[in-house]
Amino acid sequence: MDNLLDLTVIIPSYNTRRLLHDCISSIYEHTRGLHFEIICIDDHSPDGSADMVAETFPEVILVRNPTNQFYVKNNNLGMRMSRARYACLLNSDTRLIGNAFAALVQYMDENPQVAACGPKLLNPDGSVQHCIRHFSGPATMVLQALNWHKLFPRSRLTDRYYATGFDYSKAQPVDSIGTTAYVIRRSTWENAGMLDERFRLFVSDLAYNFMLKQKGYMVHYTPCAEIIHFGSQSVNQQAQNSLRELHEALIAFNEAYNYFGKSGASKWLVRLAVKARDYCKRAEYYLGSDKRVIKGPGAPPKARASVS
Known about the structure:
With 308 residues, the protein is of the alpha/beta class. It has two domains: 5-130 and 166-233, Spore Coat Polysaccharide Biosynthesis Protein SpsA, Chain A (Alpha-Beta Complex); 137-164 and 234-297, no CATH class. The protein is built from eleven helices and twelve strands. It has helices spanning 17-30, 49-56, 70-81, 100-110, 138-145, 148-151, 156-162, 186-191, 204-214, 239-257, 264-287; strands spanning 5-13, 36-42, 61-64, 84-90, 94-96, 114-122, 128-129, 132-133, 172-173, 176-177, 181-185, 218-229. The strands form two sheets. Strands 1, 2, 3, 4, 5, 6, 7, 9, 11 and 12 form a ten-stranded mixed beta sheet that branches. Helix 1 (17-30) runs parallel beside helix 2.
């Protein structure tokens, strides 16, 4: 493909009208020195998000899904539509505070061995949002389900998954980084593949980073750019359904990628463990005051603003 743009920004959106408006506005306000396009894929939102984009940002390439296609398929559609050297998968509940995309494109240009990268994410209060995860074993996941990270936040067992000791001040290779603001090289998705469509949303980032590592590709974290992330604004709208889907995705991920072992016995044990985790999280949801789906170390704080 000749005369490629520098970057395609792909924004899947469901029912986050105000946040989506602020996200797109921040891109046009801060992005300089790049030839870029924005593809917004509205996943049949009932809140008028698509009409807002069409009326306020006519230069955005808008896709209106007639039915819900969900996060993974929407991002893959954006990559297939891309006319650029890189694509950035960007959540609609993010906001640029500087020329982040120019810095990220420059980082990828200067590091041709890197298949994908992600920036420093900030909570709305300016604190660092922990977006790095280690690939870990089943014992760590069981302890995480039992809120070990709350009881013993400095535990080495907590660090095995949450990377609580990660140094966010320097660029470095990582096992897994979230796809909140995730820059992928065109050759990566053309040769290694796109997001795994066996998943709709949850675990898709872990699965993609795991697949890349298995194939010998390198994923980096870089602090050269900072982006605010409000966090889980779509999934929290239907928290109970999201919890169920999260645990179904964990089982599917293990069985598709042999993450915790190849044997039938190990997969059976994992199914039991994940079901137990699901029950623990549901009980926590019903009995606790914090109704967020994602709330581990460094997660975004409770959202106070409306997303309408």
